[in-house]
Amino acid sequence: MSIDLETAAKVAKLARIKVEDDALPALADEFNTILGFIEQLNEVDVDGVEPMTSVTPQRLKRREDVVTDGHMPEKILSNAPDAREGFFAVPKVME
């Protein structure tokens, strides 16, 4: 696949980037270079390769998924404009 000047201008317009007409050939060449790199990546055999989250193998720290009140309800409610009986008080929206 090759990017021509018309396609480069269209991509620039879609990206809301102002590109002068004399800069379009360089932009098209840059797009073609990027597409060339992508084609090289498509040639790599990745069958059986696990996806990585980091270059070093590591396990994410996990905690038990438990609902709590944060163990500081007074501190949290101190910022509320109106709090009653340990809850945020808000105006009634519907009757």
UniProtKB/TrEMBL annotation:
Name of protein: Asp-tRNA(Asn)/Glu-tRNA(Gln) amidotransferase subunit GatC
Organism of origin: Lutimaribacter degradans
Lineage: Bacteria, Pseudomonadati, Pseudomonadota, Alphaproteobacteria, Rhodobacterales
Gene: gatC
